[in-house]
Amino acid sequence: MTLATAESLTAGLLASTIAEVPGCSAVFRGGVVAYATDLKGTVLGIDERLLTHVVSESVAVGMAIGATRVLGSDIGVGTTGVAGPEWLDGQSPGTVWIAVHNARTGRTQARLLGLSGNREEIRSGAVEACLTDIECVVRDAAPRTGETSSGTSE
């Protein structure tokens, strides 16, 4: 399975963290840093109406789906939120939405994080949560013992 990222809050930190793993080029397609709101629409294809509230589940999901479409990957990850120190979009620092989309199954999981700390700690916490969720999606997609890749028993 291949992986791509679409990052706002993390601003490339997730892609950079993935790139630290030797051999990642076998699965990591790349990433889009769509920090500016308009890029979430023009580059990732998120509906303009959703962008009135960028710190939201729907934007994180749209970013994850957009990553798979734009970068041609099986799995896409989206991050959006508030690193602080100021509030954004009516949300306090540490409010983070992450989403992981599996293009093979069409399933997307998203979750809201309430992180604490300074900007660096919030962004790092979001990356760690994304890595955990990616691992879960990959594990769930792997054939079980006694199954073929089509999901049928041997």
Strand line-up across the major sheet: 2-1-3-4-5
| Tally of helical runs | 4
Proportion of residues in helical segments: 25-40%
State the fourth-level CATH superfamily: CinA-like
One letter per element, helices H and strands E, the order comes to EHEHHEEEH
CATH topology: Maf protein
* Architecture (CATH level 2) name: Alpha-Beta Complex
- Cα separation of the termini: 22 Å
What is the global morphology?
Answer: globular
Percentage of β-strand residues: 15-25%
Mean pLDDT comes to: 94
* CATH class descriptor name: Alpha Beta
Report on the architecture of this protein:
With 154 residues, the protein is of the alpha/beta class. It has a single domain, classed as Alpha-Beta Complex (Maf protein), CATH 3.90.950. Helix content is 33%, strand content 22%. The protein has four helices and five strands; from the N terminus they run E-H-E-H-H-E-E-E-H. The chain has helices at 13-19, 37-42, 57-71, 119-141, and strands at 3-7, 28-33, 75-81, 95-102, 107-114. Strands 2-1-3-4-5 form a five-stranded mixed beta sheet. Strand 4 and strand 5 (107-114) form a beta hairpin. The two termini are 22 Å apart. Mean pLDDT is 94; it is low at 150-154.
